[in-house]
Amino acid sequence: MKFLIIDTYYPSFLKSFRHKYPESLGMSYQEQRQFLLDQKFGTSDFYSGNFKKLGHQAEDIIVNDLYLQFRWAQERNFFVSESRFKARMRVLLRAYHLLGPPRWIQEIALAQIQEYKPDIIYIHNLTIFSPDYFQKIKKQCQFVVGQIACPLPPKIYWENYDLIVTSFPHFVQRFRQQGIKSEYLKIAFEPHILDLVSKQPRIYNVSFIGSYSYHHKGGTQILEDVARKVKVDFWGLKQFFMSPFSPIGRRYHGSAWGLDMYTLLAQSRIVINRHIGAAQNYANNMRLYESTGMGALLITDMKDNLNHLFHIGKEIIAYSDVEDLVDKIRYYLEHEKERAEIAQAGQQRTLQEHTYENRMKELLTILAKYL
């Protein structure tokens, strides 16, 4: 089969990437895209790379990278109706929810789809195409799959997908009750990362790398409470509404993306995890697999399905509340041998079971039910 993976990247990451590598602007489309994928942000080329390994064709499009997508259009003399200025402002303001998806994103993506002629389109962001443009896209291929692991957008954005996969078990039934085909697919870890990040000394006792947005406010409160009692090093996307007096700020080191993030995980003895409110009572997020994959001891919030993913107490540690989290951090900092044994067992579980190659095999099995 021929897959086209359509993804969006955080604007903050794209901005930092272009600032760090200004020479990328002089590259061809193919060179820019590969350079961007090589940063290993998000799911990077983990889907496409493993589809290829399994004998399929696959390509990636990062649809909201202004420079990358305009380079594609420039190389093909493709006219974009939206001005560069207006397009840039939409990206910088992150106002998709107010202005709708930028027209240039949709125009170029549709042209790319028409050129590539995929059998299956896999879309990581359900709101990147307006409902009318989505109908145009559906006509270009056999099957369109959407993926979600965040708060649900309005129904108009997802009601016409052929299938929606989600790492939220409770979303599956919700979609099915709305008449939408839906399947459960867990997130994973890409073992190749271990070849790209050299063995690191574990110089950080306790770390957290993530977002502090409105949707994470419950988890942010937990992190603040913990930071008042033990030393935690923080990285991630800091939001404007976080209090300047937050204890997170005392040991906040800025953003960390892609390989930089993986390096920090490899340098951490303990990694704290907490889930977004939309996850409810289910464990699902990327940090479960990224942290264990890099060999850190994961201490995560207790969830109903957690023991289906890892053996609690032997491969990871779970906490029930702030006091429990603080107690367990202190315990495992004082018992290094035990910490290291559990961390190693967690890493082995991830490398054996929770890999993107395994997930793509699962996804192919799912697709076979509907095609």
Automatic annotation (TrEMBL):
It holds the Pfam family Glyco_trans_1_2. InterPro entries: YkvP/CgeB_Glyco_trans-like (IPR055259). Residues 222-364 form the Spore protein YkvP/CgeB glycosyl transferase-like domain. It comes from the Bacteria. This is Spore protein YkvP/CgeB glycosyl transferase-like domain-containing protein.
